[in-house]
Give the backbone structure.
Amino acid sequence: MTERQPSVVTELPGPRSAELLARQAERESNARTYPRKLPIAIAEAAGSYITDVDGNVFIDFLTGAGVLALGHNHPEVVEAVERQLRTLCHGLDFPTEIKDEFTELQLSLLPEEARGRMKIQFCGPAGANAVDAALKLCKTATGRSEVIAFQGAFHGSTHSAMAVTGNVAQKEPVANFMHGVHFFPYPYTYRPSIPPAERLTAGQACAHYFETVLSDANGGITRPAATIMEIVQAEGGVIPAPTDFVQGVRRVTAELDIPLIVDEIQTGCGRTGTWYSFEQHGIVPDVILASKALGGIGMPIAIVFYDKRLDTWEPGAHTATFRGNQLAFAAGIAAVQIIQRDGILENVQEQGAYVRRRLEQLAAEHDCIGEVRGLGLMLGAEIVDRETGAPGSVLARRIQRGALERGLIMELGGRDDGVIRFLPPLNVTRATVDQALDILEATFADVGDRTAARAAA
């Protein structure tokens, strides 16, 4: 991947960006999000870099919210899509050769013990639709209605996906959610909802509570249709689940015959250093959700893998007009082939470890960083108020803005948007990583130290 030099030559937004942002605000829904905190209008992109309409060049460590596994416009993936454009673009759920190849490849990427027992469901081309399909499937297969989710989770913004999402503020304006969702503690060790008990880790404590409530005849919850969880809470603040928690949840759900849905929509396709993050904990879920990076260069697609014993769908039980996106199949095949050929997962592990070391060094120098955490190239740094330890959302926004003004695009997440998040392309080079981290260090030296000086005064 070719490196460029990040360069911001105008105030942000620049004049042309400001014009387009104003037109967007006038005509588009108030629900738009990213341009509010990252006020640029994009002209073009390649690899790890974005150029805005005013000629400013940025390193993109947002990558379409994790969609662009190989960065923008990888030429081989673009070529695969161009070839498919001349053959077939849309095929509903008819079998095609490219779809068959995509299906075979995706099944082959599952752990060996899962390949023979999984079926694949093509649903609407967004992760939230995969969440909806999985919940419907498990309710249909079990005949039950309750669903277990976890505090801090984010599974999407559609009606059912919001119902299993932890963010209360997102829900408050919308009445009459899907009923029967129960939220359990997730082991967020920096801000634990259940303090670790004596001789129990945070993960063990949360898993013990999960087991106790669901196994107790007086626990108040009838046996649920499904449990849905993220192995790393991504939008929730880049919080990896410890192995003892993941294995505890898997053991309990297996013993009680509760289908376990693992949401790999953002963590899948190699983001955490293995193809799916659950592999790092030695479990196999009953249902696996994938989307985002599946489409290679942002081609929209989402799929649900599920154990064949759950295949109780009637024809048409879950349909979507755009479930036959042949361009996404072509792009997804090309992306996987490149990832396998070029040792991209090894690059994720190597660069992820390097980024983490640099972030931990930064944390040692700036006490506004409470914790550095993550897996692979899904990393986060929690920004905190030096005096209270509360989420430092105001400072996090200043850091995000300061980095943008120096040429680095980053996302915020977590409680009160107090976590700065890093989602580089999986094939990012060390040179680009160093550019980004140098920008981040300069931003902390400026914004963080000015904040400390004000606090001291």
Observations:
- The mean pLDDT is 95.
- DSSP finds 15 helices and 17 strands in the chain.
- Residues 1-60 form one domain.
- Residues 70 and 231 are 22 Å apart (CA to CA).
